[in-house]
Amino acid sequence: LQIFIMDEVVIKPGRAREFDDAYRGGYLPGAEQRGMKLENAWQSPPGFTPKEVPTTLYYIWSVEGVAGWWKMRLTRRPDGSDSRYEKLAWWQSAGDMIERRKRVMLTEIV
Amino acid sequence: METVFTVLRSLTLNDGTEADRERLAARLAEAGEALPGVIRSVACAMAPYGVINAGHLVWRLHLRYESDHFTVMNSVEWKRTIAPLLENVTLQTMIGFHRTRGRAESKLGKRIWRALVLRVENNAPIEHVRELERDLSLFPVYIDAIRNWNLSRITICEGDKDWTHIWEQEFDTKEGLMVDYMEHPIHWGWGDRWFDIEFPDQIVDPFVLQVTGEVAGDFIP
Known about the structure:
Shape of chain B: globular
Helix content of chain A: 25-40%
Order of helices and strands of chain B: EHEEHHEEEHEEHHE
Mean pLDDT of chain A: 95
Largest sheet of chain A: 4 strands, antiparallel
Helix content of chain B: 25-40%
Low-confidence stretches of chain A: none
Oligomer: heterodimer
Strand content of chain A: 25-35%
Shape of chain A: globular
Largest sheet of chain B: 9 strands, antiparallel
Number of strands of chain B: 9
Radius of gyration of chain A: 15 Å
Radius of gyration of chain B: 17 Å
Strand order of the largest sheet of chain A: 2-3-1-4
Number of helices of chain A: 3
Structural class of chain A: alpha+beta
């Protein structure tokens, strides 16, 4: 079972590029360590980024099966530290660029 | 459904062995039966799996009304029989809750009981709290391994957190909890969004108390 994780992030006008850089530079490395693979990224409006209205970015990640999902989800490391707070800190640091966001888990239609 | 008010305590022995935990659980269960207003007194030591931030054992009293809890605490019997048993024991958490929604139809033999005690954050919108409760109540519809269950709001509490909810289930086997429950998509793909700090929907404090034990008898009343 392949499980997909979609971030739908509505970005304040004119800041989509800045957010995407921050996401790929600051969020992606940790996510990859947790076994998440970035499959696709899209934007709307498509093909251009207006400065006057928000841009919505869609990031689709995959994890391998339920075991992969738990690897992504569980945050306690063997040394007792907890990466949960690093995840939270990243989302908080990006909060200024975000109007609103959603995260959903997806599978193929069953 | 009869009115039941449950008082659940998570306890830690200040010293002693695993056998001492089992022994204390048995003695509390027995002594609790003689307390005034107690319908049932049950206890279990914690299992070596399925626990988060748990103490060594859980003891629960089933009462008719919340006011009976105060009768119990002020009783001569408590001072005479329970207080000495708790002398070398730390109370980690105590919660009290009415049975509100759930199912306790199957009177099973030996089985696995698991409870998640959680705190919904203070600023959570009430409609989101209701959605969380609705979603958890759907778990038993889709996870056949859940035999008995209860979801309650907590009305009295003492311990690490201002706990707001208890979500408890009973399973025939360990696999019922560790596989059927943990791996079902309603868990990881739906209900978890209220718990995961990465979700904007998250309203549950990430510090939770999860207790699991092997039990028999009327554990969920």
